[in-house]
Amino acid sequence: MKKLLLLPLLFFPVIVSLIFEYNYCYFDLFRYLNFFEGILFGTLIFGLISVLKIGKSRTALFIIFYILYAISSWAESSFYYLYGLNINPSTFFIVLRSNINETGEFLASNIDRPLMVFAIVMVLSLLLIIPYFIKQARFFSWFINPPKFQKRILIALIGVLVVTSTYRIADLLELNLPYRFITTAMEYSKQSTADQSITSRVGNFENSIRKRSENNETFVIVIGESLTRHHMSIYGYDRSTNPRLETIKDELLVFADVISPSTYTIPSLEKALTFSNYEDSTAVDKGSLIQLFNSVGFKTYWISNQQPLNESRNMVTEIAYAADETHFINMASNELSSSYDEML
Fold first, then answer.
1. Contact of 51 with 153, CB cutoff 8 Å
2. pTM for the whole thing?
3. 240 to each of 236, 237, 252, how far by Cα in Å?
4. What is the spatial distance between Cα 294 and Cα 289, in angstroms, rounded to a whole number?
5. Which of 90, 123, 216, 314 has the fewest CB atoms inside 10 Å of its own CB, making it the most exposed?
6. Measured in whole angstroms, how far is the alpha carbon of residue 156 from the centre of its chain?
7. CA 186 to CA 190: how far, in whole Å?
């Protein structure tokens, strides 16, 4: 019974995070799901550690994972406090693209008193709880008496089956911070090792020549996500959905016979922004529009309301980072996104 009372201490980081979110954040059912996921993840990790027959190494593993468990809980709740969003692949992508100076500026401008108190409570809990657990010599075997190794293995397998099944059925895997970090790091590594010809500043346009104009030239390319001509009044739709464009219609060159090179956004943009096309998709390494403008002296910007990373390899992101300045303003997951294009 005494050992069962230790369980709240084991899950103390997620309990503190739940209390912090309840007091300082917009709180809904989704936060309870996140809390439940934290309990499940802790049960899985610490349950597996408890059945390992590796002596002192088991204690070391517990300390390492408990610290990571606390950091993970603090990071998730802190990010939700700041942005009202869960940490997602796009968040990690931005972090991996940042440097120490940018990180320092972010911390200096965003850390406030509630977050400082939250961090201090987490640190103090680690300093107090970890030594207490270490003193509990048989803590890691609280649910096995007597501690027969075969019985431990059986209980561990059943526990893993129950927890993983719950993750699968409740679709909680995307709420797990370590899982999101690992998958994003793998995707980032894949993109980082991609053909440098598309991510370098000028690509293959080193000898390009620009015909100079007496006036300063500014070119703006606007790309509309999920936009169809069937709902555009400038193409004959009966509702006035493009009133401003209609007033200058005589000044516009309106294309009426364009066919998309692909059925969805990323490969379509890949071909629209590079020299690849439907017939030759491998020509992407010949360069992009951004690299072409860079090569002749323009200062280029990429400002996007799209997430920089999704579940598939995102060539558009690689093209974007060839610009002199790249800004992704939307770090929400697709399901929770409420970032409208007016933000641009």
1. yes
2. 0.56
3. 9, 7, 17
4. 9
5. 216
6. 31
7. 6
